[in-house]
Amino acid sequence: MKITDLTTRLIAVDPRPRYLDGRIPPGRPSVWHYPLVTVHTDSGISGHSMAYGPHGDGAALADILHHVYRSELLGENPLHIESLWQKLQRKQRHLYNQRDTLAAVIDVALWDILGKATGQPIATLLGQYRDRVPAYMSAHSEHYSAEQIAREAISARQAGYHGYKLQLRDGPAADIPRLRAAREAVGKDFRLMQDPNSAYSLHEALEVGRVLNACDYHWFEEPIPEAQLANYRYLTQTLRTPILAAETLPLADLANCIQGRVAVMLRGDVLLKGGITGLRKAMAACELAGLNLEIHTANTPLLDVANLHVACAARNTTFMEVHHPVFRFGLKQHPFDSLTDDGMITLPDGPGLGVELDADWIDAHTTNSSTSIA
């Protein structure tokens, strides 16, 4: 089997449901463009993946995929995934203006091909451990009042989720009352997490962390910029609430995090850790070090399905993160939309990613691009 082409289509997504009252904040794109990537083969089997597109860079990402990576794939055997992963990693060495996430996107499409060629779900090819994973819900807005947070946290618990994550980053004075409100709303026996997206200083992280200690939060995620490994180590040694870190660090940086014990749990997903191949390597490294790697949502439909396959082939991850419904588009059935009564997400049992693209929806939302081929 040989790769004959890589094509992309730009998918337009209306972002207004993501924001409070449907108002798009100043400076944010009025339309999100997600590149839908297809790797074609001479056997007629195609693999699909998708790049992340809410920041106005979707068209540029599609151009890079077409002009930088396509030629590296043509004529290659798509089933030799490790060889291609290593080839693209070597290419990344000199792509100084970008990260390695687009190589990760391609890797997901190759695994989709392998699964379809063998008639197996990707999780089975990885050595399946389970077929269901508990889900937690991330807050649908970072700007909720204490009352809105309390209501949503209660609704998450009632819906069967195994936890609720806040993403507050307005500083201790504004965030602490809302963090306390969430705990008061759901009681002591429901998992809560806080993720300020690296917005705090070390001093602010300590102040908020002490409140999280008192409120029995399950983890404190990415409180400070993730390159500050010494400060992460200090937080881990000082706070009782477990620190979750390394979400935005490249795969190659995980070794320093593991060896330095900078956090109690590490973080990653198929987009940020080098595709299915890279995330699986990260999971194995963490397991050998006695650490969990909690999988972060990619907020990209096909990538979140890929995350689910990796989670179902690993023991050392607890949850799947379920974010706003606006990020679940273009599939006939997204696994995250079918939460079981006991709050679990079930692995699709079809070959490859195991999900079917909604061709009519995608055709209706495809915009013109110099690299898109219908």
Report on this structure.
This protein is of the alpha/beta class. The protein has 2 domains: 3-119, Enolase-like, N-terminal domain (Enolase-like, domain 1, 2-Layer Sandwich), CATH 3.30.390; 124-346, TIM Barrel. Helices cover 37% and strands 17% of the residues. The protein contains 12 helices and 13 strands. The protein has helices at 58-73, 81-92, 101-118, 122-125, 146-158, 172-186, 202-214, 229-238, 254-260, 275-288, 301-311, 359-365, and strands spanning 3-13, 32-41, 46-50, 132-138, 163-166, 191-194, 219-221, 243-245, 265-268, 292-295, 320-322, 344-346, 366-367. Strands 4, 5, 6, 7, 8, 9, 10, 11 and 12 form a 9-stranded mixed beta sheet that branches. It has a 4-stranded antiparallel beta sheet with strand order 3-2-1-13. Strand 9, helix 10 (275-288) and strand 10 (292-295) form a beta-alpha-beta unit. Helix 6 packs parallel to helix 7. The longest helix is centred in the N-terminal third of the chain and has 18 residues, at 101-118. 48% of the residues are buried.
Secondary structure elements and their pairing?
Blueprint: E1 3-13, E2 32-41, E3 46-50, H1 58-73, H2 81-92, H3 101-118, H4 122-125, E4 132-138, H5 146-158, E5 163-166, H6 172-186, E6 191-194, H7 202-214, E7 219-221, H8 229-238, E8 243-245, H9 254-260, E9 265-268, H10 275-288, E10 292-295, H11 301-311, E11 320-322, E12 344-346, H12 359-365, E13 366-367
Parallel strand pairs: 4-5, 4-11, 5-6, 6-7, 7-8, 8-9, 9-10
Antiparallel strand pairs: 1-2, 1-13, 2-3, 4-12
Helix pairs in contact: 2-3, 3-10, 5-6, 6-7
